[in-house]
Amino acid sequence: MGERDYTAEGARFIRELDEFCGFNRRWLTKIDEPTDPRYGWLPRERPLAKYIEYGVINLDKPPGPTSHEVVAWIKRMFGVQRAGHGGTLEPPSP
């Protein structure tokens, strides 16, 4: 069995993500360089702990709780000591 082509597998994941989102884009590869598997993971193989450690949560905050409260909830839910928010978590005004 040959060596895995991490570059091709990563490109396939991006195309599948596009398809899932309903996009019909053509991707152009300018230079095809091999990816060294020692530096990261393929998205489907990345350990859940790494997603939590380095991840981003896209959150649609409902009216009511403050941004500070929501960040505190996230920290408790995921058992992390550090979390924050960027921008505003306030809902748009009517």
Index terms:
2 domains; 3 helices; 94 residues; mainly alpha; 37% helix
* Tally of helical runs: 3
Q: Nearest-angstrom radius of gyration?
A: 19 Å
Q: Helix coverage percent of residues? A: 25-40%
Distance between the termini: 60 Å
What value does the average pLDDT take? 82
Q: Please give the domain count.
A: 2
User: How large is the share of residues in beta strands?
Assistant: under 5%
**Main beta sheet strand tally, sense and closure:** none
Overview of the molecule:
This protein has 94 residues and is mainly α. The protein has two domains: 1-44, no CATH class; 47-94, no CATH class. Helices cover 37% and strands 0% of the residues. It contains three helices and no strands. The longest helix has 16 residues, at 6-21. The chain is flat and about 55 Å long. The relative contact order is 0.11.
In short:
With 94 residues, the protein is mainly α. It has three helices and no strands.
Layout of SSEs?
Layout: H1 6-21, H2 48-54, H3 67-78
